[in-house]
Amino acid sequence: MLDIISNREIKETPEEIVRQEYIKVLINDYGYKVEDITLEYSVKKSPSDTRRSLPVDIAIKENGTSKIFVETKKTEYQEGFIQLKNYMDFESDVTWGVWTNGSDTRYIKKIIKNGKIDYIERNNIPKKYFADVSEQIKKKDLITATNLQIIFRRIRAYLASSEVGTTRDENIAKEIINVVLCKVYIEKFTPSDEYYEFYANQDDDKKTAQRIKHIFEKVKNKYDEVFSFRDEITLTNQSLAYIVSQLQIYSLTDSSRNVLSDAFESIVGYSLKGEKGQFFTPKNIIKLMVHLIKPQKQHKIIDPACGSGGFLIESMLYVWENISNIGISDLAKQEDQRDYAMKKIFGIEKDDFLAKFCKAYMAVIGDGKSGIKILNSLSTPKMLEQHDINLASFDLVLTNPPFGKEISIENDLKSQYCSSKVDIAFLQRALDLVKPKGILGIILSEVVFHAPTYKKFRDLFFKNNKILSIIDLPHDTFRPFNNAKCVALILQKEKNSNHKNLIKMINLKEIGHTPQGNIKYIFDYDKNIITDELADDVPSVIKLLEENNFNNHFIKEIEQKRVIDEDVYIPRYYFELSKPNKENFITIENLISENILESFEGHGSPSSHFKGKGEYPYVRVKDIVNLEININVMDSIPEFEYIRLKWKERKLREKDIVFVRRGSYRIGDVGFVYKKDINSIYTKELQFFRVVDEKNKYYITKNNLLSLLRSKEVRKQLENLIFMDTTLPTIYKRWLKIKLPLYNEQDMELLDKKMSSAYNKRQEFWDILNRSD
């Protein structure tokens, strides 16, 4: 990894990752410069230690003298504090200390009284040029947070270990979000050049708590339709002061991700989220979808699964931006913006906890009565009407329906939907809410867009409407909270008879975070280093859309008729990574139609209780290794089970090729069938290829076919042909679309000889081994 301070490559270790991430925080959030920071700074371990033999992980200097020490190696903060105190004891200029393990961060301050050194815990450290943390700053000096999730995780870790009686994640989330709303309120109503009230008094937690609770009373009074008089912040003074100190330097309203979503995702545990299906859409995806539907001030919009309000807030801000560019007075603009927030924005959320805070956030941001309803979106039309939600009355619907482990439709509501599948019921209800010629934007699991079991729903909902755009979302989009691979669909509710319209197919590769939810940066392959540039394709795609550039490596326009004919609604399927010349490639499908190749699937699976109790091999996906079949005697089956499963009309031959068509990362793996493998049973997840005409015009033989199937050109194609079936990858019948590279006769013959030689040598090995048995 790249060391930020020295700009040199260093060994990546868990401890070094923590240190480098905190250096970014010091630079981006606290304003320190690279030249202010020293790594492995030498300090004394005793007054007589002239060698200065102890290394501090990070030392921060200001005006040439050390100001702050940071310890990142100790995993427990009590051990870290002991180490920090040892470092700071003999460094007279160092007043502040920080311990962090990446998820939890603690602070201490050195106090000298009557010649004696003492240490007290603090809630933060000062920014550059600040002597203390409690110094007020002006609103205009607030900074944009680089990663809100890290900050909220830090807060959650502190509360979980320090706050008595508030250890459940939902309770912690409620408390934090109340404080967040106070901060958003203050940011909104504080003029840019004035000091703002949201700050912590470092030596007086009680005074800090009183001030924040007073702000919360203002929030409650202004938005009495959202809060009741019984709502209160119940955190201890110390915990409340800690949260304030962690958030006070940041502008939440200007940060790049939705604040409530970040807070909730960072705090609420996986088990709770898994039960309720509360997996929030990343802000960059929301931004892209809003950009595609382009809401206008006359548009009435609803999200029937609004969660923390991400789609609604982004849509509102998009419209507000358009209003601010109109040539009218500022007062008129403010009135139009408030009018839009009050009359055009609607949301439905079943979870009362989420709904309440979505209402609160919408009220604080939009300065108007919220249209958020606490309701089941799949309720009867009559029930919806009682809450002022009418079918076919919205210009725009934007939503990411829940797909948690325990999500189901109530029995008395199932009859009104074409399927008991929750995702399909939400799709149907979302379309019901849209006006004729209105637009729906919805995120669904990838399986909906390709699986045979969903074809009737694609024909019903996709084929019968005008599809405007489809976005292939990276698999990491909802990780680490959910492993589902998803696709976003934008369609117009309009009878589409000829399907001549062009669909904007958008293929995203990077989403800005890793599978673990950490920020992901671009890797520079030329320099072999990780850069500071965020690995996020969305800004580039939005720029291309604004430039009307619809034919590039991110976007392609495909006629809807072709998509219907292929019955594949996944963008990457239509992107050719290698851009092959048609004369130099041929599909497996064409080879089969020309009777050069034949293909057939494996036998099936034996009864599980017969495995390991016979002499006939049973071959599974995991057994295709290193271009051959690995026989596992622990899976062998008895003769009668072999006879039951074996083909009656077909028999395997030497040099048949086995191809993995289902099974996690192994899809596309291939291997030769040797003599030893012929009398085996193979799972149906394996496909076989056999060259039946070796005197073909393409010079394809039994030998060189294996080489072609394992070529880089084919491996690249597999990325666009393998789809997710819920959480398991599958290629289904799309292996027929694989384009095999073709070469001239001489090169094809050379490949044939090489593979034939390799096969014969391996067969000789097996023959010798079998004779020795």
UniProtKB/TrEMBL annotation:
Ranges for domain Type I restriction enzyme R protein N-terminal come to 14-120
Keyword annotations for this protein? Endonuclease, Hydrolase, Nuclease, Restriction system
GO molecular function terms noted in the UniProt entry:
DNA binding; endonuclease activity; N-methyltransferase activity
The cross-references to PROSITE patterns, in alphabetical order and at most eight, read: N6_MTASE
Hydrolase found in the keyword field: yes
- PANTHER family in UniProt: TYPE I RESTRICTION ENZYME HINDI METHYLASE SUBUNIT, TYPE I RESTRICTION ENZYME HINDVIIP M PROTEIN-RELATED
Protein's UniProt name: Restriction endonuclease subunit M
The UniProt similarity line reads: Belongs to the N(4)/N(6)-methyltransferase family.
Q: Is Hydrolase found in the keyword set?
A: yes
Q: Name one Pfam family in it.
A: N6_Mtase
Q: Biological process (GO) annotations?
A: DNA restriction-modification system; methylation
Q: Domain DNA methylase adenine-specific, which positions?
A: 256-567
